Structures are given as C-alpha cells and as structure tokens.
Amino acid sequence: MIRIGLIGEIGSGKTFVGKCFGFPMFNADLEVKKIYKTNKKCFKKLNKKFPKNIKSFPIIKSEIKKILNKKNIKIISKIVHPHVRVKLKNFLKKNKSKKYVVLDIPLLIENKLNNKSDILIYIKTPRKIILRRLKKRRNFNNKILNILKKKQSNMKKKIKLANFIIYNNLNKKNVLNQIKQIKKKLND
C-alpha cells in the first residue's frame, strides 16, 4: 500500500484535493469530530482537565474552541491524538489490500505520523483564497486560527519534504488534471 500524505496550510483545501484522488481517505478532522461525539473515555479525560468548560457528552466543539490557547491545545492534543492514532491504525489495517490510501492529517509531519516511504503532496493555495475559505467556516475565529497555525511546521520545510505540489485555485478541473499527472507518475 502506498500512503499519500497531504500537507499544507489550514484552509488550503487538503480535504477537497484528497477527495479528488478517489482513493480511500483518512480524514483526521472528521475522526476528531466523531471522537467528540462518541468517545466517553475522551470526554471524561477532557472533563477532568477542563470541568468548567467541558461539561456534557457528547462534547460540543464550540466548548473546546472557547478554551483554546497555546497551553490548552497541548493538553487537548495529548488526550485526543492517541484516539486518532487508533482510528488511523484501524483505517490502514482495513485498507491494507488497496494500492493507495490518502492521509488528510493536518499535523501529519508535526506528530510524526508519516513514513519515509509516504508520498507527500503539498497543497499550495493563494493566501487570499485561504482567508476567504476560512472566513466562510462556521465559528471562524482569527485567534484560534493563529494558535493552530503556530502548531504547524514551517511551510517552507513542508514544501521541501513534498514529492509533489498541487496548486489549488479552487478550480476542480485544474486540480483533477494535476492529480491525473501525479497518478501517472506514481504508476510509471
């Protein structure tokens, strides 16, 4: 199985590009949402650390957003990320017979979830498109955005690690053409 890891800034369109590949895809953000809704162990640990803020199960994401700061994001990550790793392990096991899988994990490199053999694709998106997309998101919060961006590695470092770059200008036809070229190179 060849793992295709998508890397890039918050709001660059990693999920959009990942879906365009048409391969099984692990979406870490989606898995975190599921964990907040279904994992009572995770809730109990978060409730123990933040009893004034995280009071009810299922966890309401806006409650998490209210307490995000540099210190708390580390605590939350230590509690939630092991559950995400289990979900990733199960996804890879389930799809071990597939030729390719896509990993849409925002902190793939930062959390050392990538392998040396992974194909890394950097999603490069114009800054103004990123900001426009992020502002459309429900509960957009510039303070939280800056905290999350600081958690990501330097983008220049990610570009250097990338095997390919996809230029995402939100034109699906353009993205599909780039993916077609990448698939061709992977199959050569």
Describe the protein's architecture and organization.
The protein is an alpha/beta fold. It contains 9 helices and 5 strands. It has helices at 14-21, 28-38, 40-49, 61-66, 70-94, 127-136, 142-151, 155-161, 172-187; strands at residues 2-8, 25-27, 100-104, 119-124, 164-167. The protein has a 5-stranded parallel sheet with strand order 2-3-1-4-5, with helices on both faces. The longest helix is centred in the middle third of the chain and has 25 residues, at 70-94. It starts with a strand and ends with a helix. The mean pLDDT is 89.
What is the global morphology?
A: globular
Q: What's the name of the CATH homologous superfamily of one domain?
A: P-loop containing nucleotide triphosphate hydrolases
State the CATH topology of one domain.
Rossmann fold
Q: Strand order, biggest sheet?
A: 2-3-1-4-5
Topology as a string of helices (H) and strands (E): EHEHHHHEEHHHEH
Beta percentage is 5-15%
Mind telling me which CATH architecture of one domain this is? Answer: 3-Layer(aba) Sandwich
What is the residue-averaged pLDDT? 89
Sheet of most strands: 5 strands, parallel
Report the end-to-end length measured between terminal Cα atoms: 16 Å
Count of strand segments = 5
Give the % helix: 40-55%
Radius of gyration: 17 Å
Give the C-level CATH assignment of one domain: Alpha Beta
Label the structural class.
Answer: alpha/beta
Given as residue ranges, the uncertain stretches (5+ residues, pLDDT < 50) are none
**Secondary structure tally, helices:** 9
